[in-house]
Write a structure and sequence with these properties.
The chain is α/β, with parallel strands linked by helices and about 230 residues long. The protein folds into 2 domains: about 80 residues, no CATH class; about 100 residues, no CATH class. The protein is built from 7 helices and 13 strands. The strands form 2 sheets. Strands 1, 4, 5, 6, 7, 8, 9, 11, 12 and 13 form a 10-stranded mixed beta sheet that branches. A 3-stranded antiparallel beta sheet has the order 3-2-10, with no helix packed on it. The two termini are about 20 Å apart. It binds NADP nicotinamide-adenine-dinucleotide phosphate.
Amino acid sequence: MTESGSDSRRANRQAVPECGMMKAIVNVNRDWAIGRNGDLLVYIPEDMKYFRKTTAGAVVVMGRKTLESFPGGRPLKNRVNIVLTRDESRIPETSKEAADAYLSLPTADEFLQLMKRRADALTAGEDPGTVLITVPSETALTELLGQTGQSDRTGFPDVYVIGGASIYKKLLPYCDTCLVTINDYRQEQGREADSWFPDLDAMAEWERTEEGEMQEHEGIHFSFCTYRRKQNI
Ligand SMILES: NC(=O)c1ccc[n+]([C@@H]2O[C@H](COP(=O)([O-])OP(=O)(O)OC[C@H]3O[C@@H](n4cnc5c(N)ncnc54)[C@H](OP(=O)(O)O)[C@@H]3O)[C@@H](O)[C@H]2O)c1
């Protein structure tokens, strides 16, 4: 017996647990390039501001190399920073010390309690603090977030995938929204990109639903766009 197209699409969708539990946020050029030599391709102050504002107080998920690319390797302030690494000893002590709390693969209970304490702190108008968590695989991550999703999710902050290339690629199936800042930076010879985001324009399941007005910084034009996963694919 062969599966019909829609059956096989349903089966594929079922193989993706908790699709939609995360959003990606990324800055790309028109070729979907995002980085070079462990650094961003371009720095656009307005985009940095947008990133900080959007992810304030949220859970941010990143690869170990992206954590390393932050100033001093410090996790992002007042957020829950979840870092994927297959070798936790690669996380520098200075990164751990810069956090108010450091947890290596917490249980679902520990994670829920932590999130509850943060929600209480925010309600009381207090600083929720900076948390660094390491997880050894995307399965461990999705299990942690998935179990969280089974309990009352009211008040649970958004979860943003913030890079880099390997993590965007692995976690895109779990995202339903991508906040994409598109810029027209042209790569120069000898300074070509080495990291890319998946080309959403070439993927039938994604559509660009919002496109902000064109802005400019030092000759680079950019706009804030939103892509959403189509419902019936
Ligand atoms: N334009 C943007 O918006 C943006 C945003 C973020 C990053 N970037 C750029 O992206 C580039 C970095 O991307 P990248 O792909 O090289 O590095 P990355 O994704 O930040 O980190 C890669 C590391 O993550 C860990 N990892 C990856 N997949 C894993 C898995 N399935 N399970 C457990 N751990 C896993 C591994 O760490 P271990 O080696 O420790 O095991 C791996 O070496 C840089 O140039 C950065 O500037 C751009």
